[in-house]
Amino acid sequence: GDNNCLTPYDQLQRHRSALGVTRQCALDVLWRLDERVTVVKWHLSHGEVLRALTYCKKKGGQWHAPLLPGSIPGSDFFTAAVSAVAALQGVSASISATSPRSTPQKDSRSPSKVVTEDNDESANTLENEENADPKAVQRAKDKHAATRAASVGVFHAVYLFLREWDNAILLTTPMNAGKSRLATQVPFPDHLFEVKARENFRKMF
């Protein structure tokens, strides 16, 4: 009856809502059955890293079984953070580096072409801003700044957590050419951060 009055979009939203409720019920059941590692891994696999951190963090200064260091690799939290930030920014989580933490490749374009193209891009951006509603431009800038701040917040939270959960994965060793174990396992998502934040996180991770 009522479904006949719904638009395809409304029906899709209702389906998603029902699916979300069913999924949460299943996760709640697993949690009560003490399958807590499974629940946390599910959240990590879906990029819900901050929720995973709330489940795993110490309570009263103590870890609580079965969510103990070693039950979930530290790299899983980092990978989930990449997915979370990519979703936040609306970009791909894929990393183009061919090897973990590879050094940035030099731009193959000639210096004059780089300058020309960069100047053209800046000119187009400036022209678009001049022709746009100033309030809309400011809202876009504020949204961009908030997204960047939230992205930094996610990675900083994961870093602080990993220092206690799996600190060894963050330590650099001569065996790894001065890189951390995490750096040898997972490429760093350079495309998700601006220069200053990227440099800071590369040192931390």
From TrEMBL:
> Which residues fall in a compositionally biased region of kind Acidic residues?
117-131
Say which domain of life the source belongs to. Eukaryota
Annotated region (Disordered) at 95-142
This protein is called Uncharacterized protein
